[in-house]
Design goal:
Helix content is about 15%, strand content about 45%. The chain is mainly beta and about 140 residues long.
């Protein structure tokens, strides 16, 4: 059972808990943004295109694969900052793995998927195969 302290209930005070939790919500959002890169997916006439923003990521730290009809992008972000001044020294390092998965449509040519990396943006071009035109025909119903 929770006790009351100085006239405030530790469990039921709606003014205390939202303020207490707010920094953790902001932290969760920051962690999510740090580890999950933003992506755009485009449907072009002859291909699909996926672009991921990966600022500060080296292309050697990114791996792209196809698993169970999904395009998987894995990598690691490494951010380092160092400041040296006359009166102080500051060093900060952040590391974290990320992974994004995109289910591939049926009309892709997996063998011709190509990726480029420029200015912190990973672009993956996924060519479409020729679409089969639906064949229409009449099905006869036979009596038993």
């Amino acid at each position: 059972m929770f006790e009351k302290s100085r006239g405030l209930s530790l469990l039921g005070n709606e003014h205390f808990w939202p303020r207490f939790i707010d920094p953790f919500r902001e932290l969760g959002s920051a962690i999510s943004n740090f580890f999950s890169p933003s992506a755009d997916a485009l449907d072009k006439e002859d291909s699909y295109e996926i672009r991921l923003e990966l600022p500060g990521v080296n292309e050697k730290d990114v791996e792209i694969s196809i698993e169970n009809n999904s395009l998987i992008i894995r990598g690691e972000k490494r951010t380092e900052r160092e400041e040296k001044e006359k009166n102080y020294y500051f060093s900060e390092r952040r590391f974290g793995a990320f992974e994004r998965a995109f289910r591939l449509p049926e009309d892709v040519h997996e063998a011709d998927i190509k990726a480029t990396f420029k200015d912190g943006v990973l672009t993956i071009r996924i060519p479409k195969t020729e679409q089969k035109k639906p064949v229409s025909r009449k099905i006869e119903i036979r009596p038993n």
